[in-house]
User: What shape does this take?
Amino acid sequence: MNYAIGIDVGTSGTKSALYSRDGRLIASHTAEYPLSQPQNGYAEQDPADWWEAVTASLRAILGESGVSAQEVAGLGLSGQMHGLVLLDKEGEVLRPAILWCDSRTGAEAEELTRRFTREKLIAITANPAIASFTAAKILWVQKHEPEIWAKVRKILLPKDYIRYRLTGEFATEVSDASGMQLLDIAGRCWSPEILEGLSLTEGMLGKVYESAEITGRVTSEAAAQTGLAEGTLVAGGAGDNAAAAVGTGVVEDGRAFTTIGTSGVLFAHTSQMKLDPQGRVHTFCCAVPGEWHVMGVTQAAGLSMKWLRDTLCTEETVQAEQEGIDSYALLDRLAADVPIGAGKLLYLPYLMGERTPHLDPNARGVFFGLSAIHEKKHLIRAVLEGVSYSLRDCAGVLAEMGVTSSRMMACGGGAKSPLWRQMLADVYHCPVQMPESNEGASLGAAILALVAAGEYSGVQEACRAIVNPSQECCPDESRSAAYDAVYEIYRGLYPPLAESYRKLAGLGE
Assistant: This one.
């Protein structure tokens, strides 16, 4: 039997997973690493930590499974999008990677708009200038670290740095490249006009492939470090959300998924390229050749729950350890004891700025309606609801564009919560299913590797064979009506705060 490996280079850790040809999980291992925030709004990581995590996790799954490295037909890569990795002429990393959730580049996004105009950026890259996209990060380094920029010879995304370490090739693929704001989304190639405007050349960027194409093969040096067989093919793979779409079967019209990881995403497939003229959601190339996806993003979904747990719920974390359960399961239990509306407490999940529908890197989190009657459980419930309302904001924009779904899948760490899944079904007014496998991005990356290896004729055929839905939550009309009433208040909170957010960002440290 042939096997495939999916590697997902996430924000908190890298997961490597080994799958059989039919998508059955054989072994997986996650290696974690730190996130550095040297200043308010900054987010960086050392790419060496990613590579160390990749080598450790690959050795772990090959050792645990007993599967011979020669039986691995190929591997696919997924990972956090938008991150900026800069290499010198020797291929060495010049500075810590600036991550997707870094919000230092608001001024650079504004400068991109002045250079190209908002209309031209949307026409070429399908999106307005976004502070979290890679182009703004490039401009920031050019302006603030010219001594480093002078040494730059290659620009890579996080997962593509791992590709370089595995194969020696400088390459990317269309879905992840779409989030750099350097790609002609309709043409699925680098935009000469955007590159010229940023003083870049194609030679500084990776060659662009489709997601299921072979981009290189494992070198002898990488084989020695990882335990893989020399010559193992490495598929293009996909950005984390595009890979999760493959892993949940969202590769055809009428299908969508919600993922609640560090960020939250509402992602819908479309065979026709569709744009939001207001730039509230993102249109990217997807992992199916010649097709696209539309997605809305809330920056701090699972991150909001992690922040709350780590900051205020130390006692609950200890209690969960004593009970032998996951700490988030205990927080769910507390939140379930609170009625819809969290006792008239609302939460805006803008811990790291926001993308959909408010393109505002200065936005920050808010608890609205906090009073002396509220307990910790009310804050937990408010965070769960606030993230859900932010995702409903995304759904509303997609509906305006004519992108609708009759099948909503849920994945990511937050989707493991029955309470949160039911909340999403009620807030969306739509049934929410979980895939039979909750592996998401790593499974999607492995499926792309299987297609690249010739085990399936195409991405859609592979997904029909491998991906099956499991549990389903159906909306309840009375609960949906209760959420609707709170959501209307939620929608009105951001607009009057926008100017205050701007002023707050202008204050000294």
